[in-house]
Amino acid sequence: MLSIAAEIRNQILQHAIQEVPNEACGLFAAEKGASEIDTFFPMRNIAESRTIYQLDPLEMMKVESEADQKNIQIIGVMHSHTHTPAYPSPTDVSDAANFDPLGLWHYLIVSLEKEDPSIRSFRIKDGEISEEEVRVT
Fold it and tell me: Which residue(s) pair with 52 in the sheet?
């Protein structure tokens, strides 16, 4: 299960909507050992694409440094799907194998396919996708 404060959820949704027509992306963090998102880091999609996202490596290093300074840990990545459901694409699964081979991260996907955006979270390990509950607190 992934817990998220309503305020952080709203930040994530706002970022996804602002980046249309492109996919939005960002990282999120929690206290070490926890799975409740307490910090969201919106990031630029350097692919500037409506079908894929790519985190800026330099921006990613800055976020990781900021998380270290705050004594929190990055626990996952979010991105949006502008015209498809909130479910990992084959590209998402491939990227997870490269960036998170141990399957420790949460993959939060926002779908803007319908008027009312939806958020779902997944764990991806060894190419296997498992959905987890998202609890808004």
Answer: none
**Do 25 and 34 meet the contact criterion of CB atoms below 8 Å apart?**
no
Copy the structure tokens of residue 131: 């959905």
Amino acid at 82: T
Compute the distance between CA of residue 84 and CA of residue 3 in angstroms, rounded to an integer.
24
Average pLDDT of adjacent 10-residue blocks, the chain of 137 residues:
95 97 97 92 96 94 96 96 95 89 93 94 94 95
Q: Are 25 and 79 in contact (CB under 8 A)?
A: yes
Q: Which two tokens stand for residue 118?
A: 């939806």
- CA dist 134 and 132 (Å) reads 6
Q: State the pLDDT at residue 33.
A: 87
| CATH 3.40.140.10 corresponds to the domain 2-136 | yes
- pTM (2 d.p.): 0.93
